[in-house]
Amino acid sequence: MFTATSAIRHGTLAGPWQRRWSAFAREAVALIEALVSPGAIVAEMEQMHRLLVRAHAVESTDPRAAAELRRRASRIGRG
Fold first, then answer.
1. Rounded Cα–Cα distance for residues 60 and 10 (Å)
2. For residue 50, what are the CA distances in angstroms to 8, 47, 54, 58?
3. Residue 41: which residues within 8 A CB-CB, separation 6 or more?
4. Helix (H, G, I), strand (E, B) or coil at 27
5. How many CB atoms lie within 10 A of CB 67?
6. 62 three-class SS
7. How far is it, in rounded angstroms, from Cα 54 to Cα 67?
8. Torsion of CA 15, 16, 21, 22, to 10 degrees
9. Is the pLDDT of residue 46 over 60?
10. What is the Cα 61 distance to its own chain's centre?
């Protein structure tokens, strides 16, 4: 018979909780890094803005390049 106690004992509930705590820890680290060095966040935002402005400028002549610039902008800061 499946019970919460047996699930904990066999580790079947550890996965979801472990993922949640891991995600929480990553977010906490990102927050602390942002608070310690706000200049880095500003620099990333400026870089994203430049890429998006370039994407907007080339959208009508080269949609594929614009999509690539937007993709690159969306990945900034994800380490």
1. 57
2. 50, 5, 6, 13
3. 34, 77
4. helix
5. 12
6. coil
7. 11
8. 60
9. yes
10. 30
DSSP alpha helices (H): ranges in 1-79?
4-10, 14-36, 38-58, 63-75
Taking 60 as the threshold, does the pLDDT of residue 9 lie above it? no
- The mean pLDDT of the chain is 85
pLDDT at 12: 54
**Of 17-21, 24-28, 44-48, 70-74, which gets the smallest average pLDDT?**
17-21
pLDDT, tens digit, for every residue of 55-79? 999 999 999 999 999 999 999 977 6
1, 7 in Cβ contact below 8 A? no
Q: At residue 15, what are phi and psi to the nearest 5 degrees?
A: -55, -55
Length of the chain: 79
